[in-house]
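The protein record minuted underneath.
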Amino acid sequence: MRRREFILAVGGAAFAVPLAVRAQQRDELRRIGVIVQVAQDDPEAQASVAAFKAAMQELGWRNDHNLQIDLRGAAGDPERMQALARELIALKPDVILARSTPVTAALLRQTRTIPVVFTVVSDPVGERFVESLARPGGNATGFTNVESSLTGKWLELLKEVAPSVKRVAFIFNPKLAPGGGSYYTRLIEASAPSFAIKPTVVPVSGADDIEHAIDEFASKPNGGLVVLPDTATLVNRNLIVALADRHRVPAIYAFRIVVTEGGLMSYGIDVLDQYRQAAGYVDRILKGAKPTELPVQLPAKFVMSINLKTAKRLGLEVPMLLQQRADEVIE
């Protein structure tokens, strides 16, 4: 081969390789749909999705490089959840990340082929999202936010910070809560006698219902609130905190963010950590694993947060031993 022809051949090959690599990178762009149950700009959603993206990046997936993330927020609206599920499924993503029971239900009504990784779901077997925790058996797997002692722990902590509590209202939206509310209802009613507490079921459908229900419940003494981890209570968390303050009613929540925004105390999963764990499952699915091969994960730990400013406003003295046990104390 002549020298000029050799140089051209080598140079052309060198030029072709980067083009091939760039083309391969474009071909390998993977698409993830993400649906959160609250509004897309809700601080809870923003923090959770940021944790997921950071974990994905640590695993080698960078948004707009080899990954495209399509984020949607349902703002607590069941009809919008259905519409967003249809919208994302039509985009044919490689996997969908879902937050909450109603969002996961909306997705699985419309696809049994696209892999779904769920987070903060209370009863995936009872909701028929999976066949069993160990062997999901379909196109969905993920992470739960409950174990059997959780509701008893809510009552125990509420009594510890407010010993005078003898009545507890537990607030939920039947359209959005696990099992229509029956999942937590059974657990709380089973736990309540151990703490000499009379439980009161308070189903609500929106802000007006919440205000009326808390106003009525707080009209009698020695009451407390257990705010269940459903979409309606999270969307309306600021209203619930304000009403609890107005009536000087102690309340315990399932999510830390409520305490950082003024709620008295919370006990529940570390939501951000669960999103980081979900990134691990999404990564494995993108690399070829099937949801049915990935067991549903139970919570590894629960975290407790206490807001001493709110306790002071409510006239409560938080025991020092309880403060020492807390993972976070806001002063």
